[in-house]
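Model it.
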Amino acid sequence: MYQEAADSGIQGLAGPCPGGAGPPHWLSPAALTATKQSSLTSSSLSDHLAGKDPQAMRTGQRQNKGMRTRLGCLSHKSDSCSDFTAILPDKPNRALKRLSTEEATRWADSFDVLLSHKYGVAAFRAFLKTEFSEENLEFWLACEEFKKTRSSTKLVSKAHRIFEEFVDVQAPREVNIDFQTREETRKNMQEPSLTCFDQAQGKVHSLMEKDSYPRFLRSKMYLDLLTQNQRRLS
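Modeled.
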């Protein structure tokens, strides 16, 4: 209603005269601007009365567009591996020279073989990122590093940091473990030891081995890697 009234006002004041001579001589440019601003205000008021916040609507549209772009990129990364060297933990040329087709093929022997190879870990991490589940691998790696801790003081602080980042409810990178395992790990935080994450780490390892690892071996990312290495050697 407010928008229609404003539009009608603009047309009546600024519309052409019956003779086609343009806007009335008594309507100045400043008056035209003020009238248009009044129309915009009326439009905003109309949206407000309808339960809409123009600023929130614009922000939501930008966020949706950004999410669509991000999902599109991730989908492309998941289906293609034209630049696999970007995910390797070394300079591209040196990395490809060190990574043989035989080594990459052995990643399919077992999940532990994959995890024992630094380029295998890098490739698997890149794959998990396309599935939004890289926190599982990051937790497993953090636990492996934690087991090397020798200082009792550092052990306690590291244990609590890992728990707060990966294990606790609503942790920033919460891993997918059952309630009983989570609570058992919480009890271990009372007196942290090198084995306090063993149960949770085992659960996450099993989850990745049964779920993500088979999909990784079937992924175009892994198959493209093998193809690239074969072409490089031929």
